[in-house]
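Please supply some protein, with fold tokens.
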Amino acid sequence: EETFVMLGTSSALAEKVRSFCGDHQFNPKIAYHCSQIATVKSLVALGAGISILPRSTQSSKDIDSLVYLPLAGSQPDRELVIIRHLQRFQSRGASQFIKMLKAGVVFSTTH
């Protein structure tokens, strides 16, 4: 019954949220599309709807106006990539770190 505040269609995060909803046979009633996460959070704080965002968007400034609730069951995932300057020297430590990531090391992000 709640209306949703979502990121615009050009956002990779918005695509992940839409895919997650579709995987759970849920079609959100979208009231607003925004281009920035800060705008999504502002509209939710004003009572314009609810949203699905990564935990990493939570800020200490949100404590008086927003509540972050974990999703039950399966969680949406987010692809992370390594970026670096194409022509800059890569240290041995950086090379080893990238090699470790490519080998499939999984990091826990429990809060």
About this structure: Helices lie at 12-23, 37-45, 92-102.
